[in-house]
Amino acid sequence: MDKDFWVEVKDTFLEFLMYLGPRAVYALVALIIGVFAIKIAMKILWRVLKKSKVELSLQSFAGSLSIFLLWGLLIFLIGSILGIKASSFLAIFGAAGIAVGLALQGSLANFAGGVLILLFKPFRVGDLIKVNNVLGFVIKIDILYTRVKTYDGLIVTMPNGNVSNSDVDNRTMEPYRRIGLNFKFNYDVDIDFVLQLIIDTMKKHPRITHDPEPDAWLDSIGEYELKVIARSWVPSEEYYPVYWEQLLAVKKALDAEGIEMPIPKRTIHQPEMKEAMKNFSVQNKTEVAEHDSRK
After folding, report:
1. What's the CATH number of domain 3-103, 1.10.287.1260, 3.40.50.620, 3.40.50.2000, 3.30.210.10?
2. Spans of the chain, pLDDT less than 50
3. Distance separating alpha carbons of residues 293 and 295, to the nearest angstrom
4. Residue 286 confidence (pLDDT)
5. Which CATH fold would you assign to the domain 115-170?
6. Vertex 291, ends 285 and 292: CA angle to 5°?
7. What is the pTM of this model?
8. Longest CA–CA separation in the chain, Å
9. Which residue ranges does the record assign to the Mechanosensitive ion channel MscS C-terminal domain (predicted)?
């Protein structure tokens, strides 16, 4: 090859380094400063959100969205320092956005679901909810996912798109919940005495409400038992502890009065079996008589 060609390549490369070198240094400095600036900005944002007493669910969502926007702004700034024109940068972002949007349709649906959750508030951070057969407390609502902590300590992460399109059972939205206890008794039990015993036992619990008062009713008559339902109202956050304590207290009260739970009974009628046993008995007696006569 011609020597002038390599000289031209070298000069072009040096010009490129002279052009890009300082910009690359500036971009690196901007990146370092930008990272620290984002951390400081997020700390200030969290402090402002906490002082303004914004809901925890909105704080989590706003924090996640702010990080995303700040990093996008930093990338745009670095691109501008490197010499990428704004129009070209927007075109690149637009093309990339379309490609990413097609590839991440589920994520966009999750983002929309997160916005719907914040707007309509079917639940908030700290609420006890049951959704998609998962029962637990909401600990975080991000821009894409909702995290729930179950009673046994598991952390379940659910896409906001699925959550917003599912039936959500919010068990702490109302301040009070009703406890329902079911019992079964024998037919010969004194039902009035049993009902009053259950009510008196439930009234002794210190954390139930007395408006309305606890009550107990004969719910149905089964094949071999009387079915009784007892109800009381408690603060929502106290539901499960009070439920278990009430169940145990009523069981002890019934035991103290000697009231037993019914045992399933069945009467089996088999006429053919009785006839067969009768014939067998007659035949056996005949054989014994014949044996004696031979002797």
Report:
1. 1.10.287.1260
2. 102-103, 288
3. 5
4. 56
5. SH3 type barrels. (2.30.30)
6. 90
7. 0.56
8. 141
9. 181-261
